[in-house]
Amino acid sequence: MGRAQVTDLEIRYGKRIAVANLSFELVAGEIALLLGPNGAGKSTTLAAMAGAVLPSRGKIEVDGVDLATAPRAARGKVGFADQPPALYEFFTVAEHVGFVAEARGADAGVVTTVLAELGLARIATRPCRELSFGMRQRVGLAAALVGPVELVLLDETLNGLDPHASRSARTTLRAAADRGAAVLMSTHLLGVAERMCDRILVMNKGELVADKRGEELRALLAKGPSAIEDLYVELIADEGVT
Fold first, then answer.
1. Which of 2, 62, 182, 205 has CA 20 to 30 A from 77's CA?
2. Is residue 242 part of a domain?
3. Can you tell me the distance from the alpha carbon of 26 to that of 5, in angstroms, rounded to the nearest whole number?
């Protein structure tokens, strides 16, 4: 079952600290939203959890497997959609998602299912290089979700989706969580948090400044449709809403 543990994570770029003293745990069935202004460290955190960025200090474990000591085993449990999506430009949509599925040991039927769920079946034979921004976002999401992944990491992946595609994506992500995956996604779309999340993590200046879940999150949402925005503005007052 999906689980991820981040412990005392620090990431430096030269003298600049991008992420500092970051610790949290994600559990199976949970969809967590990672919020924060530009430069808060969200993308760096997601990339580190996917094994694409090396920490300066700390530990990341995926389903109990240490990303530093067993990187191949840990990365095999992770589906990651970065920004912009890294696609094989001369593959068709079906070929791209199928290649990722095969690498994870999934069969072709899984590819057909995820393409249908995300409204990609009708463009399955189109080369990725011809896709619009929104379609590229969908293909990146499909690749992140296809196969037996335990941890799904999404960096602004719902941005640029039309309302129908956004609803399909939310449904597919909830289904993945219900199957036992843990989902962590960054977004500036605060309304998304109100419609789909089980947890809200807020970062600012490389640090975790809020972690709302369970009764605390339900109490926050009960305050009204602007509750998450109000919390964000309060926590990121020095940075402004971005």
1. 205
2. no
3. 6
Distances (CA, A) of 174 to 24, 51, 72, 171, 185: 21, 24, 27, 5, 12
66 by Cβ neighbours in 10 Å (0-12 / 13-18 / 19+) ranks as: middle
138-178-210 Cα angle (round to 5): 80
Tell whether 46 is covered by a domain: yes
pLDDT classification of 238: cutoffs 50, 70, 90: low
Q: What is the pLDDT of residues 109-163, one digit of tens each?
A: 999 999 999 999 999 999 999 999 999 999 999 999 999 899 999 999 988 889 8
Judge whether 162 lies within some domain.
yes
Structural domain containing residue 126: 4-235
d(CA 45, CA 49): 6
| Helix/strand/coil for 8 | strand
Residue 241 within a domain:
no
**232: its two tokens:** 């964000």
Cut 0.85: pTM above it: yes
Distances (CA, A) of 185 to 53, 99, 119, 161: 17, 23, 20, 15
Q: For the chain, how many structural domains are there in total?
A: 1
Q: Is the distance from CB of 147 to CB of 101 less than 8 angstroms? A: yes
- Tokens representing 127 are 């080369």
Closest of 34, 12, 124 to residue 83, by C-alpha:
34
Average pLDDT, the chain: 92
